[in-house]
Amino acid sequence: MEEVEEEVKRIVEQVKELHDSSTSFVSSSSQEELSLRNRASVVDSSIRRLHSTLASDKHLDPKLFEKLEEDLQRAKCMLADGDTSSFLPSKPQGIDSEEGCFTVLKLFEHVLESDPLIDEVGFIHPSQFNLLDEEAGSSSVYQNELQPNNETSRKFWNQDHKLGISTDILVQLCKDAKHVFLLAFEEYKRHGNACNESQIENFSCSPGTPEIEVMRHSQAVLLLSSDFGTAWNARKLILSKKDQLSAFTEELRLSGLILSNSPKSESTWSHRRWIIKMISQRFSTPQVIITKESELVESIGERSKMNYRAWYHRCWLVSYMAIEQVIQELNKSKRWAGLHVADSSCFHYRRRLMLKILESLYVKGGNAYDKSEARKIWKEELDWNKELVERYVGREALWLHRRFLSLNWIIYFACNDSDVSPEPGESIIMNEEIAIFIDNEIHLLESSMTVLDTKFEDFQAQALHAGVYMLWLTKKMPELWRMVEEKLGTEKVKCVLSTIAQERPSLLHHLVNV
């Protein structure tokens, strides 16, 4: 118990310093006042935590217990006495929790704790509160209980597990949250250095411990400033010591809530990947988590266009998928891709899934995927892509996807019937199946080169993308150039090159000369 005794002494010293600082406080600086207030709040939490620790220890010497209790009581009285008490915010009317909501930050944290099912958060102008109330059919409970019923004083709106935060308080609330979090994190690190591992585990179960304070304040900070890396790292430090799956699934819930307001936050997506890695290493990866992650990205993709961070996250998930889940994802994402043909991110995701299928073809043992099934999937994707190319004229994402499909069709299916994976850079030997495939691609090129309408640029773009696609194929398979010249004729080939030269001269130079 020596560590607890030392901590009580340290708390008493902190209270004395705080009391001296508040007694000599004459400045009107809001920053100095905020610093004192936050220090008082942290010390107050530490006193309550130590009270709880002492009360739960059944082996403590009665005399020592009495002495430590007396020291803590004296510190608490000093903290509540005189000038120092002005920096301990009083409990507002209408809140029944033990600690109360002392400041706007405390109120914010109380809202989060009182509704653990919040699934969406956003920043709203105060003028929108009444409109939200009308749409919801009732007034926000936090408005009615805590604040006067007028537009300018409203801070939070919480209905149907949706949380709105007034833009009027954002700047100061974020500053307060960061300040209190950093103080709590320093306290946590001091506490960790002073205690052994078993004591830290015991303390972490008590309300008001540094660990709980760090998690509470970091949650508030990240909902307001999602790329505050120190807060994410603090949560990683604490979570890395946990061995309950529920702690990690709850962290996924929190990061999902943050993404509802900051869908392009790189730090948040990175943190989700860290959580999934931890779950995979410690508990194995439940496929239901991967499925939910994939669905989350798709729903965010609907609200946040061209969200490359989200789609990169979805591509990363493929490495954790079994082949059956890969096939399911390929089928599920098809409709979304067909409705968003200009968004290359979804087609990139489909390419990642199809590469996973190719990898599974050459797995040793009895777990290899059936090559005839893979061939069927590839053929269906090529046919579907052709339909989209002809229906949605001038969409470059579709032509880029076709490059991938065509080259891998030739390498893995048209000229490789063995069960051995082709070597990188291996030369492609022309055969009848490849010749038929290229002949069909040349017909597609011819139809795409026809500009039916010059009023819009879509047909010109279609001709350009088709020409670049065919030129790209000839670079990968130089022997195709002769076939293209024979089928199209010299004049049409010159027309293709001229189209590319006008729009993409540097690309033409790269494809022809490199």
Automatic annotation (TrEMBL):
One of its GO terms (cellular component) is CAAX-protein geranylgeranyltransferase complex. Transmembrane segments: none annotated. Keywords: Prenyltransferase, Repeat, Transferase. InterPro entries: Prenyl_trans_a. One of its GO terms (molecular function) is CAAX-protein geranylgeranyltransferase activity. Belongs to the protein prenyltransferase subunit alpha family. This is Protein prenyltransferase alpha subunit. It comes from Arabidopsis thaliana x Arabidopsis arenosa. The lineage of its organism: Eukaryota, Viridiplantae, Streptophyta, Embryophyta, Tracheophyta.
